[in-house]
Amino acid sequence: MIRINLLPEEMRKREKTPLSRIVVTLVGTLVTVTSASVFAYAHFGLLHEAGSRLDRARSELESLEPEARYADDLLREKKDFDKRSEIIQSIGNSRTLWSRKLDQLCDVTNNGGDADRHFVWFRGLSMRPSNAKDTTSSGTVVMSGFSATSKLQKLSDFHADVKSSAFFDVFSEIDNPSGKVIEFKDNLTPESAWDFSFNLKLKPLAPDKAQKGGPAAKPADAPASSEKKQG
Amino acid sequence: MRTFSVPGLAGRKAFLGGVSVFLVISVFGFLTYEDIRAMDEIEIEIEGTRSSIDQASAKIRRIPDLEREVVCLRENIREYVKILPDEDEVNDFVNKINKFGDLAKVQVDKLDDVGAKRRKTQKSKDPFEKVEYKLQLKGETDNLIKFINLFENHDRFVRVASFDFKSSKGVTGGRLEADLQLETFVYNPGGSLGPPVKIPEYDAKKTRFAADIVRSRGEIKIERYELPSSTGRRDPFRDPRVASSEGGVAESVLTPEQQKQLLDALIAEVSDIELMIEAEAAPETGDDFIRKATLKRETDDRILNLSRRVTTLEKARSIETASLKERFRTEVKAKVDRWVKDRNINAPTQTFSEETLAEYAKRMNGAYARADYDGVLKEYEVVSKGFPRNVRRPRSDGSDDGPEAPDPAAERLWKLMTEMDLLKERASANKEFAERNIVVSGVIFQPEGSVAVINGKVLSAGESLDGEIAVRAIEEDVVEFAYKQITIRRPVR
């Protein structure tokens, strides 16, 4: 069915937007505007401000970096120089004076001119450093020679004197007395002697700070401060 | 039956409006969500940057301390490595070997610079580069020990890495053949570190930290060993046996007992002289120059007399028992010969008169006044050879060993010789001091106690620079030192 309004236009009932539609439209608009505002605030306010803070922090860090690098360089140099200092001190403060050791050995051998207790002369004396992996000893000294006469007691006394002397301070072990009697047949007296050879083991060294980038420790590094001069 | 009605225009509009609003809200929501996430990330980044800033600030706060520590370490290491040879000294090592070989009377047969090629071709990155030399030598035992000792007592660090001594004549003994390996290290300041950090105003900071540098300096003690001057021992590599036919006694007219008594008397005389020589080197006090000169002259006289006696006994073959002869040779003759040589003692070829001595004394005084110390020493070298022997010390010196009756002529001679001895000692002391390169780089002059920076050390009056040189007084622009009983003034540089 078709309804026709025949009233003149000015008398017709004016059409109004329904209140509900207005309310819905308003709410929609409000929500849209609000969400746009929240976004704008977040984007142009908070995010921008955070970005600015980040820029400020970065530029502050950038301005500090040269000095920080300088501090790093100084620290690196300090560590390296600390190490060098340790190395050079370990070099300087640890050395066996072999001239002193040999002098002491000559004293022991000479025994103040007393040939009654022992009467020894050498034909060979050597010192060799040990393998770097050997932690039990830093090297070996080998002494070979003759002990007049054929009395074993004299060789034994020499052995005992070596062991109790200041010369022995840097050693940890010495072979027991051994050898064999030989007859010289050269018209010199005494005519016989013990032909002997002793191995002496040098004391091990403390871990050497100079192993890397510096001098490797050799048997010469054993401390010798406790030595006393033999009379 | 269910019926669907088509929504009206308004309904459709409302629907479309709702959808649009939803879409707009969703878009903004999404964008806002993305912004919040971005903000979170930025906050994390800011936090990280802040942490880096804190770390950098902490590092920067340490810079003054680090600078001080690095300056101290650099300066101290510069001092420490003075014990090591530099490149030039390593290149000069061969000369040193020759020189020490001559001094110790050792024959150098072979020399091998173990790492020479490597050192030439590639620069080591190690701060301490090992330098090794292998030597083959020949010599007597004492000479070889002296050769080693010369290196061990050398200014620069050298150590014996290995050695092998062999009696060159096998069983009968004699000269030794020796293989010797010597080691030292060269300091490479760059090393693996590269060039040092450039510290602004380094010199000013070095001066400011002078006290810290001295305080933090560890002691590097290079141990040395003074070999006994003459051991009187038999050579342990020499076969000490004697010919059976000698029977121990040769042509001496003395019995073995008499020979022993004679030898004991000679050894006692040697011991007395050794004590006198020791007394010469005793710590110096008061008028020690005079005491020292007096003692030296008396010692020289006794050595000369003993030397004559030893020569006579040798000619007369007074000591021939094998064991005593060896002791005579090592404990008496060797010592006396060495003293005569080292102290340049010989019977004067000519003895100067009192007038000549007075003339020399005048010239030496003049040279000393002009600070021509070499001139003083040259004059002394000539005049001392003409000093009259056996001029006894006069009683006025407080001694009781002068002649019974005063001898004015001897007294005048004694005074002249003592005066010249004194001038020579003072000239030597001045010369030695000049060679020590003492530099006074600054003085803090204050009434409660002044301090001076001397060769990098901060010292006050009464303190010693190196045990021998003491600071006597500090003035505003001059430091006064006491060295071997003389006073020497040095201006602030």
Number of strands of chain A: 6
Largest β-sheet summary of chain B: 4 strands, antiparallel
Beta content of chain A comes to: 15-25%
Number of domains of chain A: 2
* CATH-assigned fold name of the largest domain in chain A: Alpha-Beta Plaits
**Structure class of chain B:** alpha+beta
The CATH superfamily of the largest domain in chain B turns out to be: Ribosomal protein S6/Translation elongation factor EF1B
Kindly provide the radius of gyration of chain B, computed on alpha-carbon positions and rounded to a whole number of angstroms. Answer: 41 Å
Shape of chain B: elongated
Mean pLDDT across the residues of chain B is 80
Largest sheet of chain A: 5 strands, antiparallel
Task: Label the overall shape of chain A.
Answer: rod-shaped
Q: Work out the number of β strands of chain B.
A: 11
Q: Which percent range describes the beta-strand content of chain B?
A: 5-15%
Shape-level CATH architecture of the largest domain in chain B: 2-Layer Sandwich
Short recap of the structure:
With 231 residues, chain A is α+β, with helices and mostly antiparallel strands.
Keywords:
heterodimer; A: 231 residues; alpha+beta; Alpha-Beta Plaits; 5-stranded antiparallel sheet; 6 strands; 43% helix; B: 493 residues; 4-stranded antiparallel sheet; 3-stranded antiparallel sheet; 51% helix; elongated
What would your notes on this structure say?
The complex is a heterodimer of chains A (231) and B (493). Chain A has 231 residues and is α+β, with helices and mostly antiparallel strands. Chain A has 2 domains: 76 residues; 115 residues, Alpha-Beta Plaits. Helix content of chain A is 43%, strand content 18%. Chain A has 3 helices and 6 strands. In chain A, 30% of the residues are buried. Chain B is α+β, with helices and mostly antiparallel strands. Chain B folds into 5 domains: 72 residues; 102 residues, Alpha-Beta Plaits (2-Layer Sandwich); 83 residues; 81 residues, no CATH class; 56 residues, SH3 type barrels, CATH 2.30.30. Chain B is built from 13 helices and 11 strands. In chain B, helix 8 runs antiparallel to helix 9, helix 8 packs parallel to helix 10 and helix 9 crosses helix 10. Chain B is elongated. The chains are: A alpha+beta (231), B alpha+beta (493). Chains A and B meet through helix 1, helix 2, strand 1, strand 2 and strand 5 of A and helix 1, helix 5, strand 3, strand 4 and strand 5 of B. Strand 1 of chain A pairs antiparallel with strand 3 of chain B.
